[in-house]
Design goal:
The complex is a heterodimer of chains A (about 350) and B (about 260).
Chain A: H1 2-8, H2 11-34, H3 42-49, H4 57-90, H5 103-117, H6 124-146, H7 151-175, H8 183-188, H9 196-215, H10 217-223, H11 227-232, H12 237-259, H13 265-277, H14 281-305, H15 314-331
Helix pairs in contact in A: 2-4, 2-14, 3-4, 4-9, 4-12, 4-13, 4-14, 5-6, 5-7, 5-12, 6-7, 6-12, 9-12, 9-14, 13-14, 14-15
Chain B: E1 2-11, E2 14-24, E3 29-33, H1 40-47, E4 55-60, E5 63-64, H2 70-76, E6 77-80, H3 91-96, H4 111-123, H5 139-152, E7 157-161, H6 169-184, E8 188-192, H7 196-202, E9 205-210, E10 213-218, H8 220-226, H9 228-233, E11 235-242, E12 245-252
Parallel strand pairs in B: 3-8, 3-9, 6-7, 7-8
Antiparallel strand pairs in B: 1-2, 1-4, 4-5, 9-10, 11-12
Helix pairs in contact in B: 4-5, 5-6
Classes of the chains: A mainly alpha (about 350), B alpha/beta (about 260).
Amino acid sequence: MKNWRTSCIPNNKYLRIYTALAALVLAVSLLNLCLGAEKVPLGQVLRALVGQGSGTTAFRIVRYVRLPRLCACLLAGGALAASGAIIQGVLSNALAAPSTIGVNAGAGLAVALCCAVAPTALYLVPLAAMAGAFLGVMTVLLIARRTGASKITLVLAGVAVSSIFSAGIDAVITFVPEALNGYSDFRIGGFSGVSMARILPAFWPALLSFALGLSLHNEMDVLLLGTEQAQSLGLPAEKLRIALLGLAAVLAGSAVSVGGLVGFVGLIVPHIMRSLVGEESGPLLVSSALGGAALLGGCDLLGRMLFAPYEIPVGIVMALAGGPFFIWLLQRRGRLHD
Amino acid sequence: MIELHNLTVGYGEKTVLRDVTLDFPSGQVTVLLGPNGCGKSTLMKTALGLLPRQSGEILYDGVNLERLTTRQVARKAAYLPQSREIPSITARRMVLHGRFPYLGYPRRYRAEDYEIARKALEWAGAADLAGRPVGELSGGQRQKVYLAMALAQDTETVFMDEPTTYLDVRHQLEVMTVSRRLADMGRAVVLVLHDLSMALREADRVAVLADSKLCQVGTPEEIFTGGELDRAFGVTVQRVRTEGGWLYYCQEKQEPKETE
């Protein structure tokens, strides 16, 4: 029995994958801290991280520029990928992701409105983003339900809702041009000029909802069996679906509040991870968070290094990588879930 | 035991079946028969609380269904839907989810749940499939895994909506054998079937549904002699005696004999 049980949860396999991904995140992080317009040797980076050498240029670069930016990247990448993993599972739709079903755009509109109305209330931004993300996902869900919830309908509804929200963002910017500092960065998704003060209010809710999502991994698996089967197993499927989408909205909202509208992370990463760890929600969620952090960290580094000293926002790098991936996904949609 | 009293079921405003009074006794295989669209599946889903009833009563061991939580219902009745999503989780994980109604939040499966799941897979003759993703299994293998899940759910009543549809004949017979074994273990097994001859041969009780009502309930013998089946399906059911008991078959309807 022991054997059967241990073979039932191939802990070792998952552990190996987690370790590899964590190592990848660490490597990307160190590279991010070392490389840039001004190269900082690894030794000085580590010293700066533990608080030594304050006053030196290296210390200032690492602590006040690169570290906040790195944290923002890791947070946004991990949160978006976890959000995507939840959304894809809950809607059992391989094409769903924060950027494709209006979650990101909803959060973006809320952020723009929040900044226009209360420009100084930084701590309100993540809250607004989360509320906007939830509004976005619920709108799309409602429309898809009414028009017959086929999987492609949901994505099309997401496209429509996203463009309405985008128009909203543009309208806000037209009336209050100073609402979003670095507007183009926000639209594309980028992390230049991010500060720790903006990261922390987004970090805690994201961490909390990730932990809650993880604690519901068996529920997510049962939901994958279909609504009727899930209900007959004693799961209040509708309530749970909305609760999980709420968690996904909090994750995506916190990412948008620090990094703007970064696309594709939430779409690509869960797919890659599914081929590594399989379909079970627990491992998928953990590995997606790690993989998303590594991917966005890596892409931000690329964006900073490719045309140095000029920077391209991470959103552009992501879109260049993610667009083709999405098209490839559409092509083989027949083999996914449908 | 699950009892339906004067139950009227349907979707939204539309009524599909009126005034059905029926129970599903333990240790018996009850088969619901009726032409397409007569409301067999609707009746099943309503009895499980998956669809709202329009009027009447559903009693689980004498307790009104409305007074039970989804989890309590899930400990009393298992359900194999006709169509379903096929996730690519392993068969053993799938069967383990049959234990879901017995866990509180946060749900972590216990050693005994793993043991029950293992036994259930063995019982359904699917032990060798345990490590394989459900999505890669053939229809017949998949059905065994679902049956194992229903067994792991450890309920008094097991509902199956067309469990033999799309299966080849050997797997159809296997499903029927497993149903019989479930009944022999004291479970109440309720099936929707389309194959009249299989239903009449294998069932303990048959309920004939047609024209928005329950036409007749009884043993296959009673149903055969009662003639409701012929009326419901517009065919003539015949039988011949074989070594293994009666063999039923259907013919196109013959003109009723005129008694002049």
